[in-house]
Design brief:
The complex is a heterodimer of chains A (about 400) and B (about 270). With about 400 residues, chain A is α/β, with parallel strands linked by helices. Chain A contains 16 helices and 14 strands. Chain A has a six-stranded mixed β-sheet with strand order 3-4-14-9-10-13, sandwiched between helices. Chain A has a four-stranded antiparallel β-sheet with strand order 1-2-12-11. In chain A, α5 packs parallel to α7 and α9 packs across α11. The longest helix of chain A is centred in the first third of the chain and has 17 residues. Chain B has about 270 residues and is an alpha/beta fold. Chain B has one domain: Aldolase class I (TIM Barrel), CATH 3.20.20. Chain B has a nine-stranded parallel β-sheet. The chains are: A alpha/beta (about 400), B alpha/beta (about 270). The interface between A and B is large, with 39 and 42 residues.
Chain lengths: ~400, ~270
């Protein structure tokens, strides 16, 4: 399989990981060599047929790929406009797109001879996906999670422990995802020789944004084949939620050169952009440097990173992958935002009309599709990347409705 | 000649090693920081590294993280740090000040504005933990134009080939991170330091400071025998954290005096 030939002319990032002015390697000196080693191993393995067939095999038999494309007929009819189709990443093993990336990175770790993997997690989905592949490949796994998130996501913490991972609550800073990432970086600096850091999104220092994009772009590559076959055309627009942006980047990437397809990223507007309590750096932040790359950030006038809010823990992050920053500035992709209320409405609507409970993250993309569809004609095809399932969000959804489970 | 180079030259002619304490600006507050700085100079500090508080100090251990949080609670930002330096300069025109911190506060201010304001305030050098030389050419050239030194880190994992890259960009001194880990870690291995410093000397023609994990006079002296300067950070920040406000200056100074004596003992 020629997995990485989807794009010939779009060739970002450059060799030092830059997407225009974004991306790069902004890390302390101790990690420079480890990142260089990782880049070299990845460059070599991405062209290695044995590695790629092993990855294909795992994605098919372990993850359950390809994930189907599903026509949300009742939802589309209810809205009375464009057709809404769903890419069913919620049907993957572990319930979200995250596993596409963790399988890839775990195989890479194994090839590099690293026996210990570490990961950061917010809602716990990437932590679970990392703990899962660590169990699958017999590796030690340590997951860093903000102590606030540990409290909010108790069942995912238990899942990780069942899978044999050690979950370390992080007490510093805002005690959420960004602080978990800081702590994972500190672990990596300390144990750099035997440890592989599985970053869960298209952020971090080069080569992570590129590598995580490549592993997740199995989603977009499948779409390119599935859409003409099952729908009769490529989508008119692809809509995906954006926190760090890995599911969106995975869906967008094989379409970047196909300019007839609109690419729409939906950030979390939390309590509303004007409230300041949100997680929408592309819609209202400024470029800066955090976690190893230059990108749009939520920050104050002194350059301190701002605390974010979203009902969806997976979008509750002050930065965003540098390739999204570049796609925004270049005008190739559009970035909009849906707030907590719209995401909850979309959650309930999709659940009732299609019997599909989306993750609250993915519900942001559904919300924007629901806003767009009624303004469009019935022959327009909107593809929503349904990045995960909503089982993990039962408590949050119940609480938002004033119900205690 | 920059204040930093002049300082190292004088120390060399006196046959002494540089003692470089690190404190976070604004911990426990801005007023006390400048008093602590004067106290450190009186106790024998040659250069002061002044930490610029940041919300996400990825390379720091718990002690300096907490110190950064205390400063941020006081609302201390980069502009306030520069004010602290200005205030310090009113009565001390000789001790070099190196700002140490993370990229984003500088990104937010803008490179030329920062280089200009830092020069006006009396800053001598800048060390940005998450700007390796490859990502900091523009800032480095602005700093140079303003007469400021760019200090860079070298690590146990730095390959010799890369040391040349660092040598091309760095000025003032280089800072060797003595261990794989964060600031204040306790796994300092002197024999590893002894092995690495000669390698660095072969590539870098600047004074070498060593920091991370130096906690007492004895270790400081052992490190100083291998290098040109020792940096005391977390251990000093601990004193500041534990002291009552009225004792902060005395306790910080006492620690630095003790280390100075260990370094200078014949």
């Amino acid at each position: 399989m020629q997995m990485y030939e989807a794009l010939q002319a779009y060739n970002l990032p450059d060799e030092r990981g830059h997407f225009g002015v974004y991306g790069g390697v902004f890390v302390a000196e101790t990690l420079v060599h480890a990142l260089e080693e990782l880049r070299q191993s990845y460059e070599q393995l991405r062209q290695d047929n044995d590695f790629l067939s092993e990855l294909d095999y795992e994605l098919k038999h372990y993850v359950g790929r390809p994930s189907p494309v599903y026509y949300a007929k009742r939802l589309s009819e209810k809205l009375g406009g464009a057709q809404i189709w769903l890419k069913r990443e919620d049907l993957n093993h572990t319930g979200a797109h995250k596993v596409n990336n963790t399988v890839g990175q775990a195989l890479l770790a194994r090839h590099m001879g690293k026996k210990r993997v570490i990961a950061e997690t917010g809602a716990g989905q990437h932590g679970v996906a990392s703990a899962t592949v660590a169990a699958r490949y017999g590796m030690e796994c340590v997951v860093y999670m903000g102590s606030e998130d540990v409290k909010r996501q108790a069942s995912n913490v238990y899942r990780m422990k069942l899978l044999g991972a050690t979950v370390v609550p992080v007490e510093s800073g805002s005690k959420t995802l960004k602080d978990a990432l800081n702590e994972a970086m500190r672990d990596w600096v300390t144990n750099v020789e035997d440890t592989f850091y599985i970053i869960g999104t298209v952020a971090g220092p080069h080569p992570y944004p590129m590598m995580v994009r490549d592993f997740n772009s199995v989603v977009g590559r499948e779409l390119r084949v599935q859409m003409p076959h099952e729908v009769g055309q490529q989508p008119d627009a692809i809509i995906a939620c954006v926190g760090g942006g890995s599911n969106a980047m995975g869906a967008f990437y094989p379409y970047i050169e196909d300019k007839s397809v609109r690419l729409i990223g939906v950030e979390a507007a939390g309590y509303g952009i004007s409230s300041g309590k949100h997680a929408a750096p592309l819609c209202s932040g400024r470029p800066g440097v955090l976690h190893g790359n230059r990108t749009y950030l939520m920050q104050d006038e002194n350059g301190q990173i701002a605390e974010t809010h979203s009902i969806s823990a997976g979008l509750d992050y002050p930065g965003v992958g540098p390739e999204h920053a570049w796609l925004k500035d270049s005008g190739r992709a559009e970035y909009v935002a849906a707030d907590d209320k719209q995401a909850l409405e979309a959650f309930h609507t999709l659940t009732r009309t299609e019997g599909i409970m989306p993750a609250l993250e993915s519900a942001h993309a559904v919300a924007y599709a629901m806003k767009l569809a009624p303004q469009m004609s019935k022959d327009v095809v909107l593809l929503v990347n349904l990045s995960g399932r909503g089982d993990k969000d039962m408590d949050t959804v119940a609480r938002a409705s004033g119900i205690k489970l | 000649m920059s204040r930093i180079s002049a300082t190292f030259q004088k120390l060399r002619s006196d046959n002494k090693k540089a003692l470089i304490p690190f404190v976070t600006a604004g911990d426990p507050n801005g007023q006390l920081t400048s008093m602590i700085m004067h106290g450190l100079v009186e106790a024998g500090a040659d250069i002061i590294e002044l930490g610029v508080p940041f919300s996400d100090p990825m390379a720091d251990g718990p002690t300096i993280q907490r110190s950064s949080e205390r400063a941020l609670e006081q609302g201390v930002g980069l502009r306030d740090v520069l004010q602290i330096v200005s205030r310090f300069r009113q009565t001390d025109q000789t001790t070099p000040i190196v700002l140490m911190g993370y990229a984003n506060p500088i990104e937010a201010m803008g490179y030329s504005e920062f280089a200009h304001q830092a020069q006006v305030a009396g800053v001598d050098g800048v060390l940005v933990v998450d700007y390796p030389p490859e990502e900091s050419r523009e800032l480095t050239s602005r700093l140079k134009a303003s007469g400021l030194d760019s200090i860079f880190l070298l690590a146990p994992t730095t390959l010799e080939a890369r040391m040349d890259e660092v040598a091309r960009t760095a000025s003032g001194y280089v800072y060797y991170v003595s261990l794989k880990g964060v600031t204040g870690a306790k796994n300092l291995d002197l024999s590893e330091v002894a092995e690495k410093i000669p390698q660095i000397r072969a590539h870098v023609d600047l004074p070498i400071g060593v920091g991370f994990g130096i906690r007492d006079g004895k270790t400081a002296r052992a490190v100083a025998e291998l290098s040109d300067a020792v940096v005391i950070g977390s251990r000093l920040v601990e004193e500041i954290e534990q002291a009552a406000p009225q004792d902060v200056v005395a306790r910080a100074s006492a620690l630095i005096r003790e280390i100075r004596q260990a370094l200078d003992r014949a």
